[in-house]
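Dear colleague,

Thank you for sharing your sequence with our group. We've completed the structure prediction you requested, and as agreed, I am returning the results in plain text so they can be pasted directly into your records. Please verify that the sequence below matches your submission; if there's any discrepancy, let me know and we will rerun it promptly.
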Amino acid sequence: MDYGVNWNAPWLAPIRRLGEQVAGAPDWRVELNLRAAQLNIRNHAGLPLSFVLQEDLPSGVSYEAHIGATGNVPTRSNLHDFFNALVWLTFPRIKVELNALQAAQIAQLGIGKSRGPARDAATLFDENAAFLVVVDNAAGHSLVDALRSHQWQDVFVARRAQFQAQVGVFLFGHAMMEKLVNPYKAITAHSLVCWVEADFQSLSDVQKLARLDVTMARQLDRAQGGIELLPSVFSPLPVLGVPTWWHDQNAEFYADQEVFRPMRLRKS
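Please find the predicted structure tokens below.
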């Protein structure tokens, strides 16, 4: 498989090694299934996960409900679904929690023109999320507050070194990854904060991904006191503004208000 992916791009760091290996396999779908079996990935019903042909999805059955009922993930031969499969193998616990939420919403509300806010949020998460992994201290909270209030110059210019020391950005959304194969400045993720202890910085890359998977999955699990997933929980993040993720990141770059938009004032 060769879709012109630059595996050295910084935003692909979480899936880089796996992506290069699977893309180079004689049959990438077979390789994905071998790895899913090795990891013993199962859906929320305990069924083993398998990546199958899109044609295996029965007519009239939703994609999410099919995964929930069978463990089979319909997977087309395109970059969008390839990235989705890599995310399943990298963050399996999070994907299982998301699928459980989506399947439950479909069972409750059916498949209509309106998804409902919870399913809308789950779709945004699945397709377009980025995790802001932030050290749980005063500096970290200050940076998150500034990001949520769109103080881009403060965070990315004035406090750039502090941001790099306190915050890690991990892409999760597979549609976001696909867009970034041909990057352009306006690409914006729906970000969620994951608070971590200072020891997170000293973990290996593999350990960081595993802890993030566990932590964010727990954050989605309402039975464990997790958040109610609604569109309002996300904060916009222009991803090419992340320090070192693009060239010429000077004050002028961040002054582009078509991308780094000021906070909208709420109408009283």
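Summary note from our side: Residues 10-113 form one domain.

Kind regards,
the structure core
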